[in-house]
Amino acid sequence: MASSYLPQLRDDSLLKDRAFVDGEWVTDRSGKTFVVTDPVTDETIGTCPDFDSQDTEKAIEAAAVAFKHFRKTTARHRSELLRKWHQLVLENAEDLANLITWENGKPLADARGEVKYASDFILWFSEEAPRTYGSTIPASVGGRRVLTIKEPVGVCGLITPWNFPAAMITRKAAPAIAAGCTVVVKAPGETPLTSLALAELAKRAGIPSGVFNVITTLEHTPDVGKMLCAHPKVQKISFTGSTAVGKLLMKQSADSLKKLSMELGGNSPFIVFDDADLDAAVEGALASKFRSSGQTCVCTNRIYVQSPVYQSFAERFIERVKQYQVGPGFDPTTTHGPLIHSRAVEKVESHVRDAEVKGARIALGGSPLTENVKSGNFYQLTVLLDATKDMRISNEETFGPVAALFQFETEQEVINLANDSQVGLAGYFFSRDIARCWRVAEAMEVGMVGINTGK
What we know:
oxidoreductase; Aldehyde Dehydrogenase, Chain A, domain 1; EC 1.2.1.24; globular
């Protein structure tokens, strides 16, 4: 594996081209592989095994065998294993960041931040492991005692996305291991190298064979997902990804009544009221909209600005976006990298063109970036004005660097607009009126509310 601009890894042994099952680096049974590409250039980085359902079943069986022993370990022992893993992630942070930037495309500074974010999940759950307390409950019958204890659920199938290839794995695997569960991670086909590097560090930390397994696939992704959902020895599925795929996995898990944790697509509203600190609101909107070039599920998709401050907000917002630089992640002047692949660019372009046809004004950007780039995966940071609710960008998750500004008049109007969505992952608003903050936060039909913050 080579690249003309990838900094040399300090530890080349972190760069893996095999899956990790039962403590061993393995290929799939057919010997087939898939290509991992650099989104900056579309050049091949390397290959990984293309696991099918039978290969996946072997990983599940290994995790099931390991669970019989691992579930009996003490919480303190599991805490110590996670601490060692956390420390190794920190010691190899620069190599992990380089891998993230290489296969995902995000700027190196952002990748470094993700590695810290990923390590913090391991640290947090290492501290939670010894605190899996039960409870005592007053009995309704004299002479009886009622108490609860917590038990590990079993083998967990973890299906992770490409936009945070390190953090989304540690966020799922660390709590499972802390509880005494074993896991089979289905690495994202676009960014498997980071997943495999984490597996190598887990092995070095002493996490036992079969406890942490990482499988890779591209062509067989639907079959692998179905195997994880249908296999009777998998007790829980955790998935981060699109709503459509989440619905499918839920259906496939129904017959075996698996426990499910789903973090699905978003269409997050971001509201700026006329009493807001506009400079703070601009910074919050920038952070919420353009993080990872707009490729996160909690990115704002709809920016609603109250009419008295609409023009002022728009002008300040546009001037700040102009200061950003789109380019290769390893270029120190780059603030925003490419989209993950050409299909993502096509979706963003379709949303922009639809908005334009329906009356939106393109204030900045508005087309794929073609100058001084080596692939078709770049899109200009874009600002659309005068967006309306009939546009696709109002009703579908864009997952790209397009900020659409909508104008509104009243508080009730914008609450209705914000809640007019089939999904409700996150929402944000800016106001200096404490009574309004409580009213709006409680009225928004979303799982997470950011008040005077875009993060």
